[in-house]
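Hi F.,

I've been meaning to write this up properly since the lab meeting, where we talked about keeping a consistent format for the predictions we share between groups. The idea is simple: the sequence comes first, exactly as it goes in, then the structure tokens exactly as they come out, then a line or two of notes. No screenshots and no reformatting. I'm using this chain as the first example so we have something concrete to point to.
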Amino acid sequence: MNTTSILTGISQGFIYAITCLFFIWLVKQVDDWRTKDFDDDRHINDGNLALGLRRAGLYLGVAIALSGALSGTSGNFLLDLIQLILDGVIITGFLFSSRFINDFIMMGHLKNDLECIKKFTLADGRTTMGNTALGTVEASMYIATGFILHGSLAGGGGSFFQGLVSTVLFFILGQIALLVLGLIYELITPFNVRQEIKQNNLAAGIGLGGILIALGIILMGSISGPFTGWGNDLAGFGVYTVYGMVMLLIFRNLIDRILLPTTTLARQIKEDQNIAAMVVVEGAVTAIAVIIAYSM
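Output, unedited:
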């Protein structure tokens, strides 16, 4: 690679980074408008971790999804930039749709915005602002959605219309898959996950959020690739979705037995509220998801 190519790549990368920053700013403006009943910036400046987490997840979701739009072969730089901007608008709409799904279905008995500015009393008597467990789940939903959009935008082949329809379709199917996994996780867990999250049990939020991100990574792997026809693509997505869910639940049980040999995940979450243990476990689950996704 010669110096001219290197400098051209650096300058184009800088413009792409500026474009990403613009969309991060845009989603901030939209979220500020959406939550105009309270000042997000003031709460974050005051150390509200719940709001900080959900905003961080939103920004990461934008970047992860846009990186999918940037992957693949590059054509004319100006056309690529225009396509990236169009994809950014689509991504923004989908991420806020995902937030609506999380608020009214995944966490249907809670009101995310109110929970994230609610005052909680900790076990040691200290008070804190914001439900960090709920903020973690919402952030995870944004990140998982970012991975799903990354996969759908990274595919090649087909017309522009087919690409747009494919992105919309796989976003919807991906959200359904996340909701189904959330329901299964609730059913197989020996305590009420959402009740623990409502009580600001951060370990419970990490447990649910971690497995949602892991599935998002696997779904990214199943969606990525050239368009080969609706029948093949949908069949492949269905098979890999079921496969991914089964593998995640199996490996999560194995990780529980291997990394926590003297206790159980259920005890670490409900009784001990052990945040450190859950970070380790969900980190391992995510690592397995990365291997599964790139082995497809």
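Notes:
The two ends are 31 Å apart (CA to CA).
Residues 3-294 form one domain.

If this format works for you, I'll send the rest the same way.

G.
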